[in-house]
Design goal:
Largest sheet: 2 strands, antiparallel
Number of helices: 1
Radius of gyration: 30 Å
Keywords: Signal
Family: Belongs to the STIG1 family.
Organism: Phaseolus vulgaris
Pfam family, one: Stig1
Shape: elongated
Structural class: alpha+beta
Protein name: Stigma-specific STIG1-like protein 1
Number of strands: 8
Mean pLDDT: 75
């Protein structure tokens, strides 16, 4: 009974400390790489490049820990910012339903937003085609069969 009271007292003392500690974490910035400049006598001057000694690697989680990161501006979606889709590493240059896609190759947005290709079809240059039998896209997009050959099961002149 006495040990139970001691544990309860210990928990009661640690909870306010944990809450106070987590609140101080919310007020700090959370960059992965923090730069600290050495203090100079003239406060208007700052070095052009920080020295290697002044770079400190912060935690990968940042200062917020398990609480996550709240984006004050909100997510940059392509319906509000269309140039997001033209950035390097984007899924495609076109915006469909707040997602960046390439309407010339995307099966769910082939040629225009919302136009879906059927199960056996793929999107080639914005048109839904069946690569198993299409002689202009035999087996894959842009694979033309030689004049006179037909496309069967995705192969030109099968048999």
């Amino acid at each position: 009974m006495k040990s139970l009271l001691q544990i309860l007292f210990l928990v009661a003392m640690l909870v306010p400390l944990a809450i106070a500690d987590s609140q101080t974490l919310h007020t700090q910035k959370s960059p992965f790489l923090t730069t600290t400049y050495p203090k100079t006598h003239n406060s208007t001057e700052s070095p052009a490049t920080p020295s290697s000694e002044s770079l400190e690697l912060a935690s990968l989680r940042g200062a917020k820990g398990l609480h996550g990161h709240k984006n004050v501006r909100g997510a940059m979606t392509c319906d509000k910012y269309p140039r997001v889709c033209r950035a390097k590493g984007s899924e495609g240059p076109d915006c469909c339903k707040r997602k960046c896609v390439n309407v010339s190759t995307d099966r769910n947005n082939c040629g225009m937003c919302g136009k879906k290709c059927k199960y056996s079809q793929v999107c080639c240059k914005g048109k839904c085609v069946n690569p198993m039998f299409d002689k202009h896209h035999c087996g894959k997009c842009g694979n033309k069969c030689v004049k006179g050959d037909s496309c069967v099961f995705g192969l030109c002149s099968y048999a």
